[in-house]
Amino acid sequence: MGTSAVVLGVDDNGTDDAIAQRLRDLGFVAGEPVRIAAHGPLGADPLLVQIGYTRFALRRAEAARVRIALNEAVTTIATAAAQG
Amino acid sequence: MGTSAVVLGVDDNGTDDAIAQRLRDLGFVAGEPVRIAAHGPLGADPLLVQIGYTRFALRRAEAARVRIALNEAVTTIATAAAQG
């Protein structure tokens, strides 16, 4: 249940984005596996997100800063080049 | 021309994989944008890959170690959660 993905980075919303910095401090950094728990009705806030053994409740505005790639979309350079 | 992607990591092939370590030393680390140049006939070797302003010619066995996500597959936690 839920969606597995890899964190690519956290985007700043303007300059000195304290929320983005806080997310990075919490462990939302490139390469970290993340699980997005199944959610309630559309627009449910906060979202339940897990990195390692730690679960975070993210507001939607926070979750929108975290760039990810779904595991199902992960490939390798060799495969991508072959499909070119 | 070519494919834009983000590096997720380099997988070791067994223990003490010197090639994998070398790729990480060269800059193939999580979060780095990478471009995979258009390639020749299927199976062409080496592949031309660019990180920042530096171009690398990777053998296919090296390119197979580098996990990536295509830019077109990049999303955010908020969007992924909304799509369930």
Walk me through the structure.
The structure is a homodimer of 84-residue chains. In chain A, strand 3 and strand 4 form a beta hairpin. Chain A is built from three helices and six strands, in the order E-H-E-E-E-H-E-E-H. The first copy, chain A, has helices at 18-26, 60-63, 77-83; strands spanning 3-10, 33-36, 47-51, 54-58, 66-70, 74-76. By secondary structure, chain A is of the alpha+beta class. In chain A, 24% of the residues lie in helices and 36% in strands. The mean pLDDT of chain A is 90. The relative contact order of chain A is 0.25. In chain A, strands 4-3-2-1-5 form a five-stranded antiparallel beta sheet. Chain A has one domain (3-83): Ferrous iron transport protein A (FeoA) (SH3 type barrels, Roll). The A-B interface holds A 3, 5-6, 8-9, 29-31, 34, 36, 38-39, 42-43, 47, 49, 58, 60-61, 63-70, 73-82, 84 and B 3, 5-6, 8-9, 29-31, 34, 36, 38-39, 42-43, 47, 49, 58, 60-61, 63-70, 73-82, 84. Strand 6 (74-76) of chain A pairs antiparallel with strand 5 (66-70) of chain B.
